[in-house]
Amino acid sequence: MHKAGFVNIIGKPNVGKSTLMNAMIGERLSITTPKAQTTRHRIMGIANGEDYQVVFSDTPGIIKPKYKLQEKMMNFVESSFYDADIMLYLTDVEEKFDNHELIEKLNKISVPLIVAINKIDISDQSKTLVLLAEWQKLLPKAEIFVISALHKHNIDGLFKRLLELLPENPPYYSKEDLSDRNLRFFVSEIIREQILKNYSKEIPYSVEVAIESYKEAKDCDRIAAVIYVERDSQKGIIIGAKGESLKRVGVQSRIQIEKLIGKKVFLEIFVKVKKDWRSDDSILKSFGYQ
Question: How far apart are CA 225 and CA 164, in angstroms?
């Protein structure tokens, strides 16, 4: 008997969806930062075993969109309701229950629903018990787990239950695959992660990263990447005085890319302006937001 299926992870920003998926598959696929909206795409991570294949989907944090990029991000979340074998709603010990429309939608789904309360390492037992009761009242059909994705507390128990709930199916992907995304995508995400870590305010949210060329060689891969911003003033901030800010991002990105691919990298990063790209459908499509 072989089990395979799709476990789609949804939740608000910063509850730990990417950290959870990375913990489940044992690889650091999704980038993680303390900033909201770190995840922009729907990213699949695949956990393979001899008699199972679990295809996890990491999705953007649920928000009320203010511009077209955020609308596209919420489309990724919406799509996760239609192809899930198991829906996993991730919350944490600090979330406020204010999205009644989402609760109503989760109560109507026909597939198994799991609620995982994350970050219990920063809570106490009495507060956790109150949260358990509140979520059970909000979502009566859900199974509820308390976890710490960061510290891998109860991750094995949650994973075991997911395997029990998965339907019998042959694998959907090769057992060698870890994701449906290619290397270029993960390289661009690593660079964007360093931007999120090094810049504040609106800058990280006005940026998109594209890989213009990727040339593999035996000893050293050569990569050319472009950081796109919306305005000339943002370009200046990204580059920084005497190019120091961009240089720092480049060095930090190269180190992480080398860890990912296991060999040396020569990385060139350029900065270009695409005016108001976050509100332009054609540009968003070219960046993979469909």
Answer: 43
